Amino acid sequence: MLGTGGAAGDGAPLNSPRRDEILAELDAVLGSSGFDPASRRARLLRYLVERALAGEGENTNEYAIGVDIFGKPPTFDPRMEAGVRTEVGRLRQKLRDYYGDEGSHDRIVLDLPLRSYALSLRLRSLEPVLAEADLAGATVAQVEAQVVQDAAVPLPAPETPAPPRRRGPLVAIVAILLTLAASAGAFSIWRAKRPVNAPIRSLVVLPFQNLSPAEADQYLADGLTDELTNVFVSWKEILVVARTSAYQYKGRGVDVRKIGHELNVDAVLEGSLTKQGDRIHITAQLNRTSDGYHLWSQSYDARSQDMITVEREMAQSIVSAVRKLGGKTPDRIASGFTTSPEALDLFLQASYQYRLNTPESLNKSLSLYHQAASIDPSFTRAFLGIAAAEIELRDVTAGPQKGRVDRERAAVQRALELDPNSGDAHGILALITGIYDWDWPRADREFQLAIDLGARPSIRSSYGHTLAGRGRFSEAFAQCRIAEGLDPLGYAPRAGLYWTAYYEHNYSEARKVLRELLDINGDVSYTHTFLGWIAALEKDCAETTKQFEWVARTQPSYATTIGLAVGSACRGESDKARQYLKEAAASTTYVSPYLLASGYAFQQDSDATISYLQKSVADREYQTQYLKYDPIFDGIRSDPRFIAVEKTAGLQP
């Protein structure tokens, strides 16, 4: 059956098109000025229509199109090549352009919904849409027209002519509706048939598709996604899901209703971006997740340097659409944060590199953020980007704290000078103040201020993590759960939940959280590492070995070598464990003294453990702020030297 546009109705609608009518509409589209009948795009459209007429529309996928239309070999892997997705996206836009211009009066509308390869069919009704209040006085013809507009449009049977139209059941339904319209119950039945304009209280911005010929322009599509998310996050009236959860759906083609269920949101904003030379074409649409109903859509054509204006216009249009549905929206939309197109372009490139999260990409992002800030010294978010990239580089490269922390502090202080109400800036300052300055009272105040000012969910997760390190487990758990609601598929909230359970010595809960993370993404090395540490604490040597060997194979480093040492110590292979630890300590890169102390703790070598902890405190490693509740060191807590380390780190009075 060919797909349907709009809300689906019960039973067969009136005036369902015949096969020859659909093919005639196809010929009309292909004969329009926007199509070359001999082009691959035209062949693609005809292929999709014919598949739908054959009853195979729902089985059409990227692989089938690649092999049948693009001439790809049987070994074609659509995950590795974006050509089919790009061409389908362009076809989708061509259809919209046609029905907005030459085909604006066509009765049949061929549509290709986002994230779908099954063609959708809609019939345009000549009757106006009836308001609910007009139902009681409507004529039978008017009600029939309304039912036709909202009903499903089935495709004729693939092999046999369409059966004669049967009006009996529909006329009976219409008669019942008209009878019930005289009573109060009519409206509830009608609302079950028609989309309900429920207020939008939560939404997610899905990654915009890049339909540009150059794959290098992907940063523009991702940047547009991020910029819109940042604008909407500033609304206190509407919950906006974090980008880390939104990006889990990138390129997956998941139905909006399923997304709504998984993320618990009322609406999904999605779209595409195409760059040709200096011109950019953007399409966007807002769909309700309860039924997939189309709430708003708009296309934008502009020059590359006009992206700032386009983003602002798009945000304002969405505000108006949400407001019309009874949702609460802010009176003022946040600015684009810079008036320089060049600075914005550099910032978007930097953000794209930042998300790749490798040492090389993070260094690139840091350089690009600095360039953006140099062009526009009032660009607050460029300075926040500098601070964030420095933090990630410190974690990824495991280098010394001092130099990077000084640069982080300078960048975040400049951001606060420009915007004292930046929640993210206060959040980063809280991290610096707590884990490097060891000024917990001030860090606590900064975290709470950041949350009040609408900082991103990862800041709340970090607050939960630091609360757990102070033994405030119930508060930590609450903060991480709130963050999880804002970022349902993100790593940070569940990492916070893991650390809370870990420091509380609740290993079963910690393991449960890690298993959930594996279900979301089984390739994150941190998750396997944490599972290895828990298994070692529980003396499950087989599981310890399994997890650390997996990490060593996929991401070898001095840290994974320490993990192998822990596995050896668990199995009683003391000499082998010591050899691994010596190998890790001899690394040419900076080696975390805290991790070495952890490795020696499993060797029950208190002297080496204390020695490395003293060095960790001297280096002001952030892990030292969690030392008091880290179960790895339970065996030496009464050692006077350990107590002295805690006092030096400000963990003891």
Question: How would you describe this structure to a colleague?
Answer:
By secondary structure, this protein is α/β, with parallel strands linked by helices. Among the domains are: 3-128 and 140-165, no CATH class; 202-336, ABC-type transport auxiliary lipoprotein component (Rossmann fold), CATH 3.40.50.10610. Helix content is 56%, strand content 7%. The chain contains 28 helices and 9 strands. It has helices at 19-30, 40-53, 62-68, 83-100, 140-150, 168-180, 185-193, 218-233, 243-246, 256-263, 307-324, 341-356, 359-375, 380-397, 401-418, 423-435, 440-452, 457-469, 473-486, 491-503, 507-520, 525-537, 541-554, 558-570, 574-585, 593-602, 606-618, 640-648, and strands at 3-4, 108-111, 120-123, 202-205, 209-210, 239-240, 267-276, 279-288, 294-303. Strands 4, 5, 6, 7, 8 and 9 form a 6-stranded mixed β-sheet that branches. It has a 3-stranded mixed β-sheet with strand order 1-3-2. β2 and β3 (120-123) form a beta hairpin. The longest helix is centred in the N-terminal third of the chain and has 18 residues, at 83-100. The radius of gyration is 29 Å and the shape is elongated. The termini are far apart. Mean pLDDT is 81; it is low at 1-15, 126-152 and 159-195.
